[in-house]
Amino acid sequence: AVVQLALLAAVVRRFQLENPAFQHLLTLLVAAVVVHHLLPLKWRLPFFLALSAASIVVVLGFRPAAPGDAGWLPRLDWKAGAGRGALLIGLACAIVALCRLRMNFWTKALLVAGVGAVLAVFRSGYGAPDSLAVLWPILGSMFMFRVIIYLYDVQHEKEPPGFVRSLAYFLMLPNVCFPFFPVVDYRTYARGHYNEDALVIYQKGLNWMARGVVQLILYRVVYYHFAMETAHVGDGRDVVHCLAVTMLKYLMVSGHFHLVIGLLHLFGFNLPETNRRYFLAASFTDYWRRVNIYWKDFILKVFYNPTYFRFKGRGPTFALVVATAFSFLVTWALHSYQSFWISGTFLLKSQDALFWGVLGLLVIANSLREARKGRARSLTPRAPTWPERLGLAARTAGTFALLSVLWSLWYADSLAVWAQMWSMADVQTLVYGAVVLVVIGAAAIGSDYWDGLLARLCGTAGAAKLGPRSFSMRQAAVMCLLPAAGLYVLSSPRFQARTGEQVGAFLASLSNTRPNEFEQDQMERGYYENLMDVGRSNPALAALIDQRPADWKRLEETSALTPSGDFRLNELVPSRRTEVNGFALTTNRWGMRDRDYEQAKPAGTFRIALLGASTAMGWGVEDDETFENLLEDRLNRQPPPGSPCRRFEVLNFGVNGYSAICDLVTLERKVLAFEPDAVMVMANATDEYWAKQRLAKSIRAGVAPPYEYLRQVVERTGIHAKTTEQAALVRLNKYGGELVSWAYRETARRSRTAGAVPIWFLIPRVIDGESKRAAVERLTRMAVDGEYVVIDLAGIYQGYSASELVLAPWDAHPNAKGHALVADALYRSLCSEAGAR
């Protein structure tokens, strides 16, 4: 068991699964599990409690690794960890003591609710220092549901449970690492402690941990290589793609829960399975029983059963309908309550109400059908006939299809975006959808064969149910040891290097923790627009965004911008100094973030005009740290060899959020008056998105398209001032590349007409620039077709980690060091180009 756990811990670290604090904690727990097993039985629960308390101190004092750090031991701030841990454990002791008071149940419940209300005020950001903000999601996770279960069970117990067992229930490992934690039932937790042979319990847990690791890695495959958001659907095939991917996102929750509950087994808690083949549910009631078993049991125990028996006198059908409807209403409310404790905001969107409401109605209909016809049961197992198998396949495929639709609704940014997605459905949707459903149906038929194969491999063929009855090395090898060893080999850089470039890159991509392509775009857009809700679709990304200080502003929230009255919508205010997020943003009399220049070009001066968006403007760095400023100083300090010019000026016309079309408008309205000798266009890997977004925004703002080509696009897509932005973006999806290509060509043509050399370059992303390789290649081809002088800056960040160059964890713009690298690369490229000419 220890060897298996050590191997699983190594796989978790190799693939960087879950958060870094858990990766370190799991490694340390390998030794703790051995000590725990060697202790006398009566000392194991106190040891588990002590270990849980120690883990709280360790995790709350954990500091992410700094660049250059090595070794497997975590970096800890013991003072901060001990202070926060003592407060958290003290609050837990106080709440447990309050729950154990001998008094009227409802009086006690009101007292606990009062304490919860005070803590909720702290969670909202009032009355507590910012240094304690990290505590409230963890405290909420430990008590928001478990305290309800605990009060319910204590009320029905003859003797109050022991204090150590009660406190261990709330502080249990590894809750401190996972605010999103399974709703463990107290009575099951207490009665299942070493209720079976220890090695059997341990092996069951290790099997589930291995299953969880596999599911988390499969989720990464989906997340990094098959992600599709509703707002990006462009045709009928994309509709099916989006539906299937949305369903598969639950692999993250399922894998997470298997990992957590499996770990608890290693300390003797013989808890039941959390999820069971939920993609193969044959009805909505079956899905409710499979998808989150702990949540279902919690709702049944505390809400459904009391409600059912309260109304049973009015007939079982009436009681079933009322109890089920009430259960789903409570589920919706409690999920919003859970969101408040974890992320600080309530989920009260129309999609949530529709998702839980429709799912509840479907479960009610299914339950009534089962109540009338009864569920098929047999005292002796028999092989199903082929008509029965095909019927099962049809029911499973139908359930999967309807659940996919519901999940896509729940994850959509808005009902308008979801409806727009369905407007793209066509014959491809039917064809590809049918293929997916055939696969699901075949999997439902083949599940019995799979179980039989596993049973034969594990040596348990003939057993009533696959699972350990006694410790078996054969089963341990098949269910845990061999899968973990295989994953460890796949994560090896040496093995990946031998598999070929494409396979090796694919395997390496699964070992990184980063936002995927869509969510990197979302983070980038967050500095120019309001971020969409990501808490439901990706809690990890939501947590990253939540690190951003409350006073971290977007440029649009400052006085640095003013309406431009044209397609660009806004521009920088001339002669203004603005403090933004700790850096100074100073503009000259012409509204450029730059030093002052005369409009007439001085004799003997080579003038370069820089066009672009946020990085060109220099978002996040000081005025003298922008790559444009550094480049100008370098050119004047070390002119290119053979240059006849005495002076160089680089004029910065960049503004946050500008698109390639905005650059064209800026060129005509501002740049050409300064008589540039060269026009440098700084591209962005997301130029196609920004071209669509700014066109949609300008139409919604009532600004007429300034060019005939844009007017034709608007006419073809049918967008107008009342079209929602997301709907307009979907309609413009297929025009993104065309818009950018047209803008590139027009900018280059008008620059050459004015006697300026058009130069194009693209600054790669600091974080995972490879994820946009295809987009970069498309944009580069467009620049070549537009007859630009193309400067290749790929690889300028080579040898540096993202943490060394990124502005902040929540802001992926390059910092001052990143700008210095860009300036150096541009200088060398310009000198090389000048020499070639």
Question: Could you characterize what this model shows?
Answer:
With 837 residues, the chain is of the alpha/beta class. Helices cover 59% and strands 6% of the residues. The longest helix is centred in the middle third of the chain and has 32 residues, at 427-458. 41% of the residues are buried. Helix 14 packs across helix 15 (316-343) and helix 15 packs antiparallel against helix 16 (350-373). The chain is globular and about 95 Å long. Strands 8-7-9-10-11 form a five-stranded parallel sheet, with helices on both faces. Strands 1-2 form a two-stranded antiparallel ribbon.
Main features:
single chain, 837 residues, alpha/beta, five-stranded parallel sheet, 34 helices, 13 strands, 59% helix, 6% strand, globular
User: What is the CA-CA span between the terminal residues?
Assistant: 69 Å
Radius of gyration: 30 Å
Which secondary-structure class do the elements indicate?
alpha/beta
Helix content: 55-70%
Number of continuous helical runs:
34
Strand content: 5-15%
Tell me, briefly, the overall form: globular
Poorly predicted sequence stretches spanning 5 or more consecutive residues: 66-73, 463-468, 523-546
Average pLDDT works out at: 85
Largest sheet: 5 strands, parallel
Q: How many β-strand stretches?
A: 13
Main-sheet strand order equals 8-7-9-10-11
What's this, in brief?
The chain is α/β, with parallel strands linked by helices and 837 residues long.
